Every structure is written in structure tokens, then in C-alpha cells.
Amino acid sequence: MLEDQDQVLAPMEVDENKPVDEAAVGPVSNPLVGEFTWALPNFSGSTGKVLSEPFEIGGYSWQLLVYPSGNNRTDALALYLAVAEDDQAAFQLQRFAHFKLILLSQVEGGDVVKDTQHTFTSRETDWGFTTFVPLAELRDPARGLLVDDTIRVKVCVEVKVPEDFIYDSRKETGFVGLKNQGATCYMNSLLQTLFNINQFRKAVYHMPTSEDADPASSMPLALQSVFYKLQFTVGPVSTKDLTRSFGWDTADAFQQHDVQELNRILCDRLEEKMKGTRVEGMINKLFEGHTLNYLECINVEYKSSRKESFMDVQLDVKNCKDIYASFDKYCEVEVLEGDNQYNAEQHGMQASTEHTSCDARKGILFEGFPPVLQLQLKRFEYDFMKDMMIKVNDRYEFYDTIDLDREDGKYLSSGADRNVRNTYKLLAVLVHSGGVHGGHYFAFIRPDGKQWLRFDDERVEKADQQKAVDDNWGGEDERMPPQGFGNTFRLTKHANAYMLVYVRESEWGAVMCQVTEQDISAHVQARLKAEQEEKERRKKEKAEAHLYTLVRVSTDADLAEQIGSSRFFDLVDHDKARLRYRLPRKAPFSELRRLVAEEMGVPAEQQRFWKWAQRQNQTYRPAQPLVLESEDQAIATIKETAANRGTRPGVMATLNLFLETPAPGGELPPLRAKTDIMLFFKQYCPDGDHPVLKYAGRRLVPKDTKIKELHPLLRGLGGLGEGEAVEVYEEVKFEPTVMVDKLTPSVTLAGSQLEHGDILVFQRQLSQAGATAGPSAKEFMEYVRNRQSVTFKPLDDPQGEEAVQLELLKTDSYDDVSKAIAAKLGLDDPLKLRLTGALNHLTQLPRPHPIRYRQFDALQDMLKSGPFGQVSTLYYEVIDLPLPDYENLLSFKIAYHNSKLEEVSQHSVRISKSASIHELLEDLRRQLPAEAQGTRPLRLLEVYQWKIWQLFNPRDRVETIGDNAWHLRVEVVPEDQEDLEQQGVLHVHCLQVAEEPNNQRPFAFSDPFIMRLGPEETVGELRQRVQEKLGVPDEEFAPSWKPVLCTFGGAELLADDVVVASRLDSQKLYGHQERNCIGFVRENKNPRRTHAHLNSRLAAWQGQEKQLRIRS
């Protein structure tokens, strides 16, 4: 916005340096394109801003805006295109236009032309050029711009839809992206990679498919469709048909999986589909290689080998500098010796006793590499020291080309074909950005072998070698501090290569062969071209939508069809109205009458239309008869009783009308505007097991009519017997609660405050003798509004097929719900059920915590998912106690360890929340082995990442343990530690740790323990007692078990003469606190299993992930 010294709102200035499209307008026949020419006389006498008369282009009203003496400057003419003043107050104003402003000259070729594009909104109602032409140049007679003190300005406008301004991947790169369905970026990156392996794409095109098949149920046809659209269409491609053909639902689309796993499963399924066709074996031909697993004894004449095929190679990243280091590690020789000698006897070798086991060499070599080499980089692995999955973000270099024949073919077996050169060129880099529990996938691909492209879901853009390769090596980035103050700092790069695709250089031409339309079946081309034509038609229709009004006319037939079946409240769903007309906004209303007369056979003079209005209580009713100025009145001028809504490109105005027609053979009754009310009637039939609500008709009724005077009319409409008593209710509203009021028979319509469009519901009087008892109309409509279909799934098998579906009420209490599901399951006691809600309607996974007994007042609260979400699934589990009693208990899984730290047994214990931890331990003692019986005290520890997180105070209540404790361990307190609570008695936490390259902090990997400590005890003395406690032999203990001080910042090697107590920082016995520990460094020969078997309910929930399947 320019500064305006005259306090006049300045028009928006355009950046003349910003590149714009060269084409300003389209063909003249385009209804979104037009031009207007304006002559401004008395130019020299004009001051301030001058507006042209309004003109219409593309369905919108515009004006030209000129400042003859300049705007905020006095040396240049300012010229703008503006939204017409009458339209500037329109609600949600938004217009997209590409336009050209032309100052016409009488001199040939002398026109001044500038073009631009802009989104016009209520804040930016004009756009153009403050310096359109210098005034000196304008007044130069030789230029022919100012003639007889008159200038002539021409504007050419093309109205566009928002999509026209979106980045065009096809135009910029020659390729288009794939739409993300929720969490399908991993699939999109793989599909783009496979698509750009041209021989693979051609094989997919050559798969035979049926002309009548549905892509949503035929995986080959769906994949052909995706590939065809990627090759020939202009916008992002949907994969919904493809995922449906996989047998996936919405929940699958929001569950992220491993791209390598999808690659294997997809190729397996395609290989099956290709059997018996001309492309049989193509998957293996492209991707299959072979390895040779060998084993040979060193001192014995024995050798064995086994040939195996592979579709991809998994390479280590951790502790490997680059891709060659990974191949070195993959093919390195393992020597089996000592305790790990090879047992040759199992192969039937005739061996003396001393040769039953022998030293041996074992390894893997490659028999042959495939034309397309897929390398899976092991970025994710289980860390036994941390007891969790981690992502390896280490720096790992890979190269534009790799030579797998290097060093005289050291990766190849003796039987490999040495005539084949195994030099490969990088085609694709699949990148994962994020961590173990989530992230985003995208791919860098160079289809022509030169220009890298980044495929990131819908967007495809060019990239250089640095971004595609070097930036995805991982490692750390050096960053400058904010404002440049302080030292640089390093950040881990969480976006790094996860999968690499190489193509053998000698076969690049064959693999990346040309793929044309001739490779695609004619019926596939026809089907997909028809889809594309339909898409273009819809796009054009959307672009021109604001030029039309959709008129939806509802009739008695619509009301009769919908009420009681698909609709119970209000009158009609306008989307389902039978009479729907797309009319130009300028079309006269008489055209609508003509179309209705043709379709319904009702003459124009017998048609009375009513306008709908939304009331303050959110109901939507016919509010008043439509009164026209004339039959030629334009459709666009007819507005509902609502806010003025400006039309926008891509949005069609909608006009809803109700059509009143005469009874068959009759005439349209006259409407007395001041005395008559249009009422609608619904009949409720409570008889039988299935009550019915239906539409009974409508009438114009005088306001002074009493409710009881309507009874004869209602009996006639409802087919009731003469003299049968009826009850009449008014349907007032249904949001947020149902309001259906019974009307007093002696009160008039006016006294009941009834008006046009009100709905009366009538029924046979229930109290009448002989009538079948049942719910009233009010009760029935409350039931309909509150009914809720709920799916119940067993908690222990949430992804299973077994489920129970019940229709309940949103207002049902917890007890009502549990009784209903218990009855369905055949359980005697509903209280022996525990329910758990669902996370959201997309994944449909259970929440980590169950619903407490009577936690919510109603079912609708139990089904809430977030502030606005609602689910329809609950999970159940059968328990052995009534839920109120069960919830007063806490359940724990606890492992018992002996004095040598060995895990002996696992136990489940359940105890009252009010119990102490001491009572828990004594209750648990009954389950423990004999060595733990007696009176020796027990203690309870929580272990996390192989460190003692906390020691629990036996006097605390069990509630302090919490629901989400990690690994709970119980042990007998050693005799020398029974007095640790006493003042002045010292103790220390001890860890078993291993050193890790490039890491200052050693990682714990085995069970920690507590040792009593003397005030002057040295490290050497403590080390000796640890050896005695754990029973470690001298030959194992002496060379290892080095003592280190483990602190938050790292580790420090300790000498034997150091007094331990002098290096400790805490003597807090119970509870959690960061503390210095003594670690003993030793080799981790046998990584321990994790504690997952003892984790809490939360940990079990976190492990739930739908298995990746392609069910087609």
C-alpha cells in the first residue's frame, strides 16, 4: 500500500518487476473473458480520482480507476482496475483476475500496455500501476495518447479460479505429483520411483486388464490408471482407487508404514498378477540378484554354500562411513572360533572327536547384481542399550556412481559372471525426514539421468546435486547463532536417505526405455481419456460456476419421499430435490416457470413459489411467498432471507424454493397475505413394534383458526376415523436438543405464535380406548434424534473382524450401554465389562486408558474424540470382577530377580489402591520362589533404560507407582543393606555399561543394582565386593569391569584408590533423582531381551499398528 498524503485510500500498487504470464486473455468465446474501452474527456480539468461507469466481465461488475494528476506523486498517470463500488461490500468478496491495461494511442504501435494478475478482496478492491505512464510522455503530441484533451483506456480481463494460480509442476518440470490421502507420503515416493523406472512402467501397462473392471477392485488397472495420469495429465493424481484395490480403508490411509515393506509386498503381488502373461518374470528380471552364503572349515576339509535371491540389499549405516564401507561390512568374513566354533558333525561329516567342532570362516558374496539395484539403508534399528527403537542419523555418504567390481571384484563370488560390468548410476534417493514415531517421505529422482527433481506429494520441483545427494547424507549441520552472536552450533540432520535406487550403466538405455501411448491398452486409454475429459468439463464448469445459479425446487413429492425415511426433522434435504436447474444468473424467472411446467405438467399460472429462510433456532423453513417485480426479473436478484453473499470463481450461487401446486384437478387456492398461514403436517403412527412418521400434506389456514378446528382436516389427511381424538404437537427445533411442544386445542394459530413454514405433528390420541400403547410423537422424535449406532470391538483384537453393532441412544448412561453390550455378548453381569474409547474416526485405534465407571454422563460423551470429533466405535474387555471393585484395584506386572541379578520369574499382582507398597510386597511374596520366603524384607525398584529410576518407599501407597511405570523389579534386600534408611549409612547405584564409538556417554545394557558403601571405601574395594556379589570369575572380571563415574555429562575413569563417597552427589534413598552412579565397563556379548513383556497398558497401546497388507 502506498502512502496517501491526501488521506484517500490508495489503490494497491503492482510490482512491475514481478514476472507474469505473457498471455493476458483467452478466446473471445470464453465467458470469463472480456474487454471494455473508456474515454475520459476534459483530462486536464480532472483532479483526484476518476471512476469509469461500471461494466461487467466474467460475471462480475468492474470499474476503471484513474488519477489524472497522479496518486501520491505528480509526475505520472496512475491507472487501476477496481471492483465496482456497489460490489465492494459483498460478503466474503474474492475474485481472481488476469488483466491488461492499455492506454490507446492514435499512433500505430504507440499504445502503452501493462498486464498483471491479482486476487481482489474486501481489503484490496483495486490493483494496478501508480506509475502507468509519465505525464510528460502522456502530454507529448507525438505520442498520440492525449487527443482533444481526451484519453482512451482499454482493459482486457480474464477471470480465473484459484487453481489457475497454483504452482504448475507439469509446466515447470514435465512431471506431476501424487495427492496425499493422510499419511501416504511413503507410498507416493515409492510409486514415483517405480513410475520413473520406465521398463517397470511399460510392464505395468502391458498387464492384461478387463475392459469392464473397476479400478477400485483391480490392482493392475488401478496402477495403470495412476501411471497413465502421471504421464499424461496436468494436475496432481489421486491414489484412492489404487489403495481401495489394495483393500485399504480410510484408517489405512492415515497409518504410515515402511516404504521398504510396501515395496516388497507390492512387487510380490504384481509378480503374482503377471504370471501367465507376456510380462511374466519382469519384476525379477529388473530387481532380482543373487548371493552366495558360504561356510568353510579352516582345519578340516569341509565347505558348504547356498545360493539365495534378493530383491533389495539392506546395508548398515551405523559405524559405516559410506556405501562402500557398508558393502565391505556386508561381505566381511566372520571367523567362528573358541566357544563359537562350527559344529561340523551335524552335516554328517566323518570326524574324530577332536574334529567334531572346528574353526571356520563364514560370509556372503554376490553371485550377480540386478539391472536395477535397490539399496535399503538401515536407518532404524533396535538399541539394546536404550531398550528402544532409534533412528540412525549418522553421516553416511553415497555417490552419483558406484563401482561394485572394485578391488578386483571383492564383493563377487568365484562363480559370478566377470564379463558383466557392475558400475551403477544413481536414479533415485528416497528420503525420510523425522524420527522413529513419525515423519515424512519424499524422493529425489532424475528420470533423464541429468536433472534432479524433488517429488514431494503433490509438488514436483527441480533440485540440484547438492540437495538431492549431499544434503541427504545425514550427520550434523553447522549453524550460525541468531544475529551472528556467539559460537556456531551443530544440529542433527533428521532428513536423510533411506532407500537408494541405482541402475547399471550398461543397461540404462534398456531400463529407461521410451514409453508411449502405444504401450497402453486401447480400452485403458479410452477409459482414462474419458475420465480426463470429464475432469476438464468439471474444471470448466467450476470456473464458470459463478455465472450461474443452481435453483433447487422442492415439492410435496420430495417431502413425502424423504420424511420418515432419510429425514425426520424439518422438511427436506435440498441436495436430493428432484427439480434442479442450473440457470444463467441473468435468466428471467419465466424461464424457471417454463422448465417446471415442462417437467411437472403444471401451468405457469398455477405455480406459487416460496422462499426459504433459516431461523434463529437453526431450522430452515419456507418463510414467505415469492413476489416478483415482473416475470422477467433475473434469477440472480432473488435472494434468500440471509446475508448478502458475493459470488466467487468456482462457487455457484444457490437458490432454494418450495413449489406450491394445486391439488389434482383443482385450482391454486388464493393467498390472503394478512390472514393465512402456510402450515406443513406430519403424521406419527405409534401402532405396532415399528412406529412411523410420514408427511401428511400442507394447507393455507387462517390465523384465527383454533387448534381443535384443525382436527377434521388432520383426520382426513391421516386416514383416521371420524370422531377419533387426535393430539397435535409443534415441531419447534432439533438442535442442540429436540423441542416438540404439545399444542392446546382451544388456542388459535396466532395465539400459538405459528407462522409460515411451521410444522405440526399429529397422532391418534394414545389414551383413547382401544389404541395401542406406545411412545408419543414427542418421545419418538427425541428417540430418533438421539439414536446412535455403535460398533463394539474386543480390546485384545482391535483390528480383528469380530465386532458387535448396536443401536443405542446418545443419552444412554454408562449402565445402559454396558447392559446392552452384555446382553448381546450373553454375559450375566454387565459390570464385568470395561469399555475403552477410540482415538479418532480415522485410525479407529483404542485410547491408551479405559473409560472409568460412570466417568461420563451419556454415550455421546463416551464417543467424543477431541473438541469436535465424534467416533462410533468402543472397545470392550471382559474382566473377572465388577468394574467398581476392579477400579479400586491396581494391577502390576513385576519381575523377581535373585541376588545375582538374574530374572527368575514374572508375576502379576492386583491390590487395592489404598494399600501400601509394603502390603503389595507381602502379597507378592506368596508367589515368589522359596529363597524369597520368610521375614527378610523385599524392595521394589523401577528400571528405565537399564538404570534404577527409583526405589519405592514401602510406606507409600501403591498409587504412587502410577499406571505407566516401566520395568518393575522386586528383590530380597541384602542383609548388609537392611539399614540403608538409617542416618549416615551410604549406598550407591551401580550400572553395567558398554562404551560406544563417537559417544562420550557409555550406555547401560544390563541389570543395575544397589551397593552399601563404607564412608572411606575405595573404588578398588567396591569393585572386589561387586565381583563377589555377582560371582564373576577372575579371568573375566580382571581384564574388564573397569570402574567409571557416570554423570549426566558423560563418564570418567576411576582409579582404584579413589574414595567412592567423595564422588557421589546424592544419598536420597527413595524416589527419583538424577545422581552420579558407578558404572562397570564390560563387553556386551549377549544383548538382553527388552522389558516389553512387562510394560504397562500404555506401552502395549503404543505398539498397535495395523499390519501392512495388500489384499487384492
What would you note in describing this structure?
The protein is built from 25 helices and 54 strands. By secondary structure, the protein is of the alpha+beta class. The protein has 7 domains: 128 residues, Apoptosis, Tumor Necrosis Factor Receptor Associated Protein 2, Chain A, CATH 2.60.210.10; 109 residues, Cathepsin B, Chain A; 200 residues, Alpha-Beta Complex (Cathepsin B, Chain A), CATH 3.90.70.10; 117 residues, Roll (Ubiquitin-like (UB roll)); 91 residues, Ubiquitin-like (UB roll) (Roll), CATH 3.10.20.90; 97 residues, Roll (Ubiquitin-like (UB roll)), CATH 3.10.20; 121 residues, Ubiquitin-like (UB roll) (Roll), CATH 3.10.20. The strands form 13 sheets. Strands 13, 18, 21, 22, 23, 24, 25 and 28 form an 8-stranded mixed β-sheet that branches. Strands 1, 3, 4, 5, 6 and 9 form a 6-stranded mixed β-sheet that branches.
Main features:
1112 residues, Apoptosis, Tumor Necrosis Factor Receptor Associated Protein 2, Chain A, Cathepsin B, Chain A, 7 domains, eight-stranded mixed sheet, 25 helices, globular, ubiquitinyl hydrolase 1
CATH architecture of the largest domain: Alpha-Beta Complex
Would you state the CATH class of the largest domain? Alpha Beta
For this structure, the quaternary state is: single chain
DSSP helix count? 25
Helix content: 10-25%
Shape, per Cα inertia axes:
globular
Distance between the termini: 58 Å
Q: How many separate structural domains?
A: 7
Roughly what is the average pLDDT, rounded to an integer? 85
How many E strands? Answer: 54
Q: Measured on Cα atoms, how large is the radius of gyration? A: 40 Å
Query: What percent strand?
Result: 25-35%
Structural class: alpha+beta
CATH homologous superfamily assignment of the largest domain: Cysteine proteinases
Low-confidence stretches: 1-28, 346-355, 642-646, 1088-1105
Q: Using the coordinates shown, work out and report the CATH topology of the largest domain.
A: Cathepsin B, Chain A
Largest sheet: 8 strands, mixed
